[in-house]
Amino acid sequence: MAAAESYPDDLLYNEEHDWARIEGDEALLGITWHAADALGELVHYEPPAVGATISKDESYGEIESVKAVSDLISPLSGEVLEVNDIVVGTPETVNLDPYGNGWLVRIRLSDPSEKDVLLDLADYRKVLDEQ
Amino acid sequence: MEALRRTPLYDAHVAAGARLVPFAGWEMPVQYEGVIPEHKAVRTDAGVFDVSHMGEIEVEGPMARDLLQQLLSNDITKLDVGEAHYTLLTNEEGGIIDDLIAYRTGEHRYLLVVNASNRDADYAWIKEREITGSDVRDVSDDFALLAVQGPDALRKIGIAPGTPFTWEMGTVGGIEVMVNRTGYTGEEGVELACPSEDAPALWDAIVAAGVTPCGLGARDTLRLEVCYPLHGNDIGPGRDAISSGLGWVCALDTDFTGVERLRAVKDAGPEQKLVAFTMTENAIPRGGMAIEGGGEVTSGTLSPMLEVGIGLGYVPAAVAAVGNVLTIDVRGRAKQAAVVKKPIYAREG
């Protein structure tokens, strides 16, 4: 069963329904409950390579359901330190636990000031309300 | 934009929590609980699909059979009352205007069940060619159509097993229905036609019997596992029926539209063939992806039963044999697949 709808208030978001959890000069990235629900049960995660550089507002990978493919749009720029192999092996983990075990990559931030333009929960809820 | 049409079961879909999407001009359920559980319900138990968006064209009169023999690829003179077959509406080039099921419903009456997206074009094509002694009518709005499919489907709705591609009148949940022994899933099952006003009660009776509501998402993955082509994706007016792998429904000894072209393709051998494949690398093929060497994927998904990427696509005839390795361009990444025997999925034993 998929998780119940939720949006933690300690994360930052972008309008493409990706989230970031910043811890020092690193961040975990993932997709929100809304994105996972819209795609349906996820069956494939195409991650970036460890060591790759990813850029804010650009695709860093893909996630797929039976019916559809979605680009992962990074909320922040940096170097990929780790890919979540649990999701590579069992993509449905994202549906079950989008903000916990369903994280997608861990990165080292190249420009921590980028976080200033991301959405907090109140702003992200406005994005959701417009859809 | 024209408003989307709704089937008589629209309210039932909303009540069941369906996710509704536009499809061929209709607002249709793509899923309820999810594509994968619905798919597995049909493979292991029973599922019901609202396919009332499909078109129905009735052809009646002493010359109905002659008209259809000229327009459809299969030999309609072989159908007795109570029988049905899969057939193609072809153009002068042997291309496929539509694929459909023709039912003989009376001595001089036939019912054609056609794809929703082609209903208007099919009707116009056949109506234009109407001959004296044949009356062609679009009766789509009179009928609702529910597909009930799966190994436990017939038992659950109280229909005795029967011969595929036949039809008879029957009763489900107290409602009189035309019981068609046809389907698009590869499982045992029926497609039930009833007057539109009876559809909500019929749907409720079927769901109450423990049959899982299924959307168009599962319908697509089910048909792809068993390699039934989807018109508009895998087959269409721009590709001849022989190359499309549908020579088996073309009676080349009869005289139908485009038959000369199809005889020529058969004699020369098609340049390309529609093949089934499974991915041998971790990737999901999708329609429109290029296959190295001049081919193209026409349908692709992840098989819920096999848990690998599967698809259909056209490749040069020289590389169409089972076992051949294909290289597919998955959004810039070269991923390998192998041509496999159809169907891709078959129940063990």
Descriptive account of the structure:
The complex is a heterodimer of chains A (131) and B (349). Chain A is α+β, with helices and mostly antiparallel strands. Chain A has one domain (12-115): RNA polymerase II/Efflux pump adaptor protein, barrel-sandwich hybrid domain (OB fold (Dihydrolipoamide Acetyltransferase, E2P), Beta Barrel). In chain A, 19% of the residues lie in helices and 34% in strands. Chain A is built from 4 helices and 9 strands; from the N terminus they run E-E-E-H-E-E-E-E-E-H-H-E-H. Chain A has helices at residues 33-39, 85-89, 93-96, 121-129; strands at residues 12-13, 18-23, 26-31, 42-46, 53-54, 59-65, 69-73, 78-83, 105-109. In chain A, the strands form 2 sheets. Chain A has a 6-stranded antiparallel sheet with strand order 1-2-3-9-8-5. Chain A has a 3-stranded antiparallel sheet with strand order 4-6-7. The relative contact order of chain A is 0.26. Chain B is an alpha+beta fold. Among the domains of chain B are: 10-52 and 142-225, Probable tRNA modification gtpase trme, domain 1 (Gyrase A, domain 2, 2-Layer Sandwich); 271-349, Elongation Factor Tu (Ef-tu), domain 3, CATH 2.40.30.110. Chain B contains 8 helices and 19 strands. Chain B has helices at 10-15, 35-44, 64-71, 119-128, 153-157, 199-208, 216-225, 259-268, and strands spanning 19-23, 26-31, 47-50, 55-60, 84-90, 96-106, 109-114, 135-138, 143-149, 167-172, 175-180, 189-195, 212-214, 272-279, 290-291, 295-302, 309-316, 325-330, 333-340. In chain B, the strands form 4 sheets. In chain B, strands 10-11-12-9-3-13 form a 6-stranded mixed sheet. In chain B, strands 15-16-17-14-19-18 form a 6-stranded antiparallel sheet. In chain B, a hairpin with a 2-residue loop joins strand 1 and strand 2. In chain B, helix 2 packs across helix 7. The radius of gyration of chain B is 20 Å and the shape is globular. At the A-B interface, strand 4 and strand 6 of A face helix 2 and helix 7 of B.
